[in-house]
Amino acid sequence: MHQIISGYRGLSLLVDVNWDRILYLATIVFALMAGAFFGSLLLAY
User: Fold this and answer.
1) HEC sequence for the chain
2) Could you report the per-residue pLDDT of 1-45, keeping only the tens digit for each?
3) Looking at the domain assignment, is residue 23 inside a domain?
4) Is there a domain that residue 1 lies in?
5) CB distance 22 to 15 below 8 Å
6) Is 7 among the domain residues?
7) How far apart are CA 24 and CA 20, in angstroms?
8) What's the structural domain count of the chain?
């Protein structure tokens, strides 16, 4: 149980330190998915 709590704290620390990088990657993924969606709409007509 101690290892699980310790691992959770380590993961929480990594997220706290790197939240801007995670947000950056999520924004890129969202933009690519939105571009693919709108591109498929334009090609359908």
Assistant:
1) CHHHHHHHHHHHHHHHHCHHHHHHHHHHHHHHHHHHHHHHHHHHC
2) 666 666 678 788 888 888 889 899 999 999 999 999 999 998 876
3) yes
4) no
5) yes
6) no
7) 6
8) 1
